[in-house]
Model the fold of this input.
Amino acid sequence: MIGSTVVQKEIWFTARHNFKDIRGVCEEIRTEALELQINKNSIQLKSPFSIIIPVISMKTGNASRDSHMLESLEYPKFKEIKGRINSISGSDSSILIKGSLEIRGKEKSFETKAALKNINGKKELTGSFMILLSDFAIDPPDLLFMKVKDEVRIDYRIVIE
Done:
């Protein structure tokens, strides 16, 4: 399957705090056209592609907390978080995705393992990875007079047709 279409894409983020975990969602996600080689249970990326998340579309369900998050991400100076996926390869539950993430003008490489499932004739990639806010020179925002922890978990789900 070359020139695959992304039919669903979801990205969530979870920041840890001493009192609670803060879960957020990226309400808007833009992707370029994918070129994948997909066989029965394997997948391989034919060329790199980008994922763009407008910072303003990141929501935690609390307007005050979202305002602090935007401030920490230096919005509107930096309006987008950019992901570049350089490779996707493997089969079944041993998919390896390699790429880079750019936040606030700072770029950092990442790797994540993903699961590949067949669902109603479509392929679903799911997985997660951790980032450190300090890698992107982000001062963690305050919540209840305490800083959010440096580590943020990113979860994703991509359905491809």
